[in-house]
Amino acid sequence: MVCIQPPHDRSDVPKKRQTDLSRHLSAEARVRLPNPIKTIWKVAQVKPGTINMGNGDPHHTLYPVCEMNFVVPSIDEADPVQAWRAGTGEQQIIASYKDEPCALSLRTALAYGAGAGLKHVRDALADLNNRIHAPPNHTVSLSLGNADALTKCFRLFGDPGDSFLCEEFTFSAMTNAALPLGINWVPIRMDKDGLIPSDMERALSSWDELSQGKRPHVLYTIPCSQNPTGSTLPEERRRRIYEIAREFDVIILEDDPYFFLQYDLDIETTTVESYGFTRAMASVLPRSFLSMDYDGRVVRLDSFSKILAPGMRLGWVTCNDFFSEKLDMLTDSSSQHPHGLGQAFISELLGSHGWGIDGFMKWVSSLCNEYERRRNLFMDVFRREVQVTGLASAETPKSGMFVWIKVDLERHARYRKVESPEYPGGPVSNTAELMNELFRKLLDCGLVMMPASTFAMPGRIGKCPTDGHINDRVNYFRATFVGTDEVIENGLGIFSRGLEEFFSL
Ligand SMILES: Cc1ncc(COP(=O)(O)O)c(C=O)c1O
């Protein structure tokens, strides 16, 4: 395990409390045995010179590769992303070798490894974590991206019949993966700033174990560029959510693939000049749940998917060493370990012959500028083409890739209140049907935007009298602004025309 050193400057983080967290484990996680072959393999790694005749690893001399060259943008450019896009920037070649010195030998990268990933890569990511979140007493393991890590976490904590909390609109690709495990989702209300802490508190404090089963002990949340709503949780809310999680003994699954893509950042040039990009970025990036965690209840998931490339299939999980060990055991007996070529590439990129950590953060900062430009373009075109119709509106997102577009359906001639005494707690409007119709119309016009119904988590009807039915709130589309200028202009043009036609029907 790679242990991250305690922070020097987190005076607001109380000292670590040793808590027994085993009560959160699922029955599956409790009975899981270590992979016995990996256990012996790990012993064989410890003493240099040990002759290992025990494992079924192919011999490295028979790997049909001895060198890999990666051509990447030079990080010496003032604005590396712009120079790379324009094709004017310098390039840099970083190489991995099997038989020559490099950051991570292909002998190691291409061999079977430990589920937690290679120490070299974990050390680099622990260093990055430490400089950004400074989490006391946490451990880093690699994953095959956040989807892999999340599904493993669901298995780590979820038993059939368990209830987990989530945002009322959420990344259904992942929440659906928990359903076959028998996990029920309990949606928490949101507003433009994301999950509303008081509603989380209400859900937990009013929980009735007799009628609802075990009280939720896990919160799944996407704090930055919440997928799909694009909201970013303000720091006060994060603090409040963490306190509620402590009060009700809830584990926080912090799924944060958009964390590094923040906009309108006020990065001090003097800080960059004196201390480098990592420190400068760390001072303006949002405060993560991990950075507040002193009793080990946060499992943070980071990914290279949005800041390098999704096909890398590489991410990292940061959590207390007890959970980390259990997750590593699951990996040891399933996907085995993350992608070797990806680990080789990252090692070289973050190593002394590549960008290094600070160069990587320079790239991230430059990427933020480019996505911020695209977001601004999207919002300008949106105001000009769409908002002007008075039929839809949107908040400007502070991070990530998504704009959550609200359609003012109440202005549609066929919008109806359909309250039915036969279905108390059911939808009271035909919002869902109209949105479905609009979605199909846009599709016919050659435009796909994700309808809110794709992400809506239906609550248990009748359980919460303060909640309306979620089908009355699905009058939104998720749109991304990551495309080219042309895609943004054309897409929003189609949206505006389609919307006007639909409202005249
Ligand atoms: C909120 C969220 N979680 C997880 C993922 C999956 O990320 P990864 O590519 O790291 O598996 C995505 C991808 O879009 C996402 O938006």
**Percent range for helical residues?**
25-40%
Radius of gyration: 24 Å
Question: Which architecture of the domain at 369-504 per CATH?
Answer: Alpha-Beta Complex
Note the main sheet. 8 strands, mixed
Q: Mean pLDDT score, rounded?
A: 92
Pfam family, one: Aminotran_1_2
Family: Belongs to the class-I pyridoxal-phosphate-dependent aminotransferase family.
Biased composition (Basic and acidic residues): 7-22
Protein name: Aminotransferase class I/classII large domain-containing protein
Which descriptors apply to this entry?
binds pyridoxal-5'-phosphate, 18 helices, transferase, eight-stranded mixed beta sheet, transaminase activity, Aspartate Aminotransferase, domain 1, aminotransferase, 38% helix, alpha/beta, disordered N terminus, PyrdxlP-dep_Trfase, Aminotransferase_I/II_large, 505 residues
Description:
Residues 1-22 are annotated as: Disordered. The protein has helices at residues 27-31, 36-46, 80-86, 106-109, 119-132, 146-157, 172-178, 197-205, 209-212, 235-247, 269-275, 277-282, 289-292, 321-332, 340-350, 356-386, 431-444, 485-503, and strands at 2-3, 67-73, 91-97, 139-143, 163-167, 184-188, 190-191, 194-195, 218-221, 251-255, 298-303, 315-319, 392-394, 402-407, 450-451, 476-480. It is of the alpha/beta class and 505 residues long. The strands form four sheets. It has an eight-stranded mixed sheet with strand order 1-4-12-11-10-9-5-6, with helices on both faces. A four-stranded antiparallel sheet has the order 13-14-16-15, covered by helices on one side. Strands 2-3 form a two-stranded antiparallel sheet. Helix 6 (146-157) packs across helix 14 (321-332) and helix 16 packs parallel to helix 18 (485-503). Residues 145-147, 171, 174, 222, 227, 255, 257, 303, 305, 310, 315 line the site of pyridoxal-5'-phosphate.
